Amino acid sequence: MSSAISFKQVSKTFPPDIHALKSIDLKVAEGEFLVVVGPSGCGKSTLLRLIAGLENQTHGSIDIFGKDSDQLAPQERDLGMVFQNYALFPHLSVFDNMAYGLQVRRESAPEIRKKVEGIAQKLEILEFLRRKPNQLSGGQRQRVALGRLLARDPKIHLFDEPLGNLDPQFRAGMRSELARLHQERPRTTIYVTHDQAEAMTLGQRICVLRKGEVLQVGTPEEIYDLPAHRFVAEFFGSPGVNCIDGKIEKKEGIPSEFRSGSIQFPLPNHDMPTGSITLGIRPENWTLSAPENGAIHWGD
Questions:
Q1: How far is Cα 32 from Cα 189, in angstroms, rounded to an integer?
Q2: Strands 59-64, 67-68: parallel, antiparallel or unpaired by DSSP?
Q3: DSSP classification of residue 66
Q4: What pLDDT is recorded for position 296?
């Protein structure tokens, strides 16, 4: 599958010396739903702003559908963005907010009405089309912001923590709705969040950022089962992973053993290299036997 967005050694530095992104190499396939996850301040929103043309990278290049983004003005990138703070026009009705991008493209009034009302019905805001944003709840405003993007239907959808201001119950419902809408109309989507549950449930792939660096990119299963970094292992899972620093020892004729202080037990993989290691154990994947024999049994 061809790449819709490609980062090549992209860095972004803000004055005086704030390194928001460091040598990012990342490819997003056409039609893929990629979730970028990490703690606050790791560079997630900066990544989106570079794609949207709201910021320029300090080093490196970004290709959008094979074209150098430096040669593309923001309005030429065929993308839409949904922010956490909605970014609606307060003086326009819900209908006009959702129709704005279509009106700019000079689509016919009947076609605009058909698209806006169809999306509004899916998002359960059809009855609010004549209201102004200040007459809506936070959840309703966020659905209007989402509807504005979906009505215009650009090739690239960017989401910057769009569910951050919603209550937990409604967030779960909106996650399901976003997944369903993407399945119906796959568009290249980059979704930024610090919420591991959103990342695991929405992302076809997940990109884990920390301090401006990509630690790992993979499917939810790969990120959870085969973390490439201790931070990745500890970030995902509830309850979290148990990490134990120790070392692997192997003597001829006996299985490899893990040792850390008074902890000692054989390892199921006999081919593991010896030396210092951090052992990560998911709580759901291990059980202790009865005290009398002291053996540890690994889960499936």
A1: 6
A2: antiparallel
A3: T
A4: 54
Element counts in the chain: helices (H) and strands (E): 8, 16
- Which string of DSSP letters, residue by residue, matches 138-180? HHHHHHHHHHHHHHH--SEEEEESTTTTS-HHHHHHHHHHHHH
Answer whether 54's CB lies under 8 Å from 45's CB: no
What six digits make up the tokens of 252?
């001829």
- Structural tokens at position 27: 């490819």
Residue 300: what residue type?
A: D
pLDDT at 42: 94
Give backbone dihedrals phi and psi of 12, rounded to 5 degrees, phi first: -135, 125
- Residue 175 contacts residue 202 (beta carbons within 8 Å): yes
The CATH H-level (homologous superfamily) assignment of domain 3-235 is P-loop containing nucleotide triphosphate hydrolases (3.40.50.300)
CA distance 225 to 220: 8
* Largest interatomic CA distance in the chain: 80
Instruction: Output DSSP code: residue 95.
Output: H
Q: Which parts of the chain register pLDDT below 70?
A: 1, 269-271, 289-300
* pLDDT value, residue 78: 92
Predicted local confidence at residue 251, as pLDDT: 78
CA distance 274 to 116: 62
The domain segmentation of the chain, as residue ranges, is 3-235, 243-298
Which tokens sit at 168? 């937990």
User: What pLDDT does 267 receive?
Assistant: 80
Tokens found for residue 61: 């290049």
Q: What's the distance, CA 238 to chain centroid? A: 18
CB 285 within 8 A of CB 299: yes
